TrEMBL record:
ATP binds at D6, I7, G8, N9, T10, V11, A12, K13, T119. The lineage of its organism: Bacteria, Pseudomonadati, Bacteroidota, Bacteroidia, Bacteroidales. The keyword Oxidoreductase does not apply. Gene3D superfamilies: 3.30.420.40. It is an enzyme of class 2 (transferase). It catalyses: (R)-pantothenate + ATP = (R)-4'-phosphopantothenate + ADP + H(+). Pathway: Cofactor biosynthesis; coenzyme A biosynthesis; CoA from (R)-pantothenate: step 1/5. This is Type III pantothenate kinase.
Amino acid sequence: MNLIIDIGNTVAKIAVFKDKDIVEVFYDSNQTLENLPDICAKYAVEKAIAATVIDLNEQVSAQLACLPVPLLWLNETTSLPVENLYETPETLGYDRMAAVVGACEQFPGKDILVIDAGTCITYEFVDAAGRYHGGNISPGVQMRFKALHELTGRLPLVSREGRRLPLGKDTDTAMREGVLKGMEYEISGYIMAMKHKYPELLVFLTGGDDFSFDTNLKSIIFADRFLVLKGLNRILNYNNDRI
């Protein structure tokens, strides 16, 4: 079995895989990884991969150092099953690349746009030949609400939950609809622009924020909240097969 450790900005996700299949997913603190010993005791893991977008503290580093199996760290030198055309691979967030690998594993030989809606919204493109061309980074939903509040003098901090109207009738509904509709139009715009250039394009939506929006492109969209975990598992297996 494979142990997958995905340390994000707000939470750590730990998954156990058997071959390509998820056995169980755990959510843990990205500051402690306190559940890691129990997970290792519960499952007979044979190898592990870890990736992080934050600097690790001493407690987390110690937990990872105590793993009873070999640990592969995902970084710019890790061998990948796709060709990385990014000009500065050392600055590329591991989650962006892992999501691309996860999508390619499910639909090899396809042009794919991966949209990850989390703390930020990222857009990644990999072509049918398995070449990752790069992508774009945009503010996520909470970042947009906080920016409206913190970078203005009087606008309140609004939650995404609440009354929604096509056109706001007060400040709260105007801000809520402005942020959420703005994100919807942004995402739809990316999809339509890429679809125009790559007619056989497939789209993956992943990340912590769920979006439901009306579009005539729904038939090409696949929602997969575990895409990054699946990509990390694929990278681990790929490197193990090369040994």
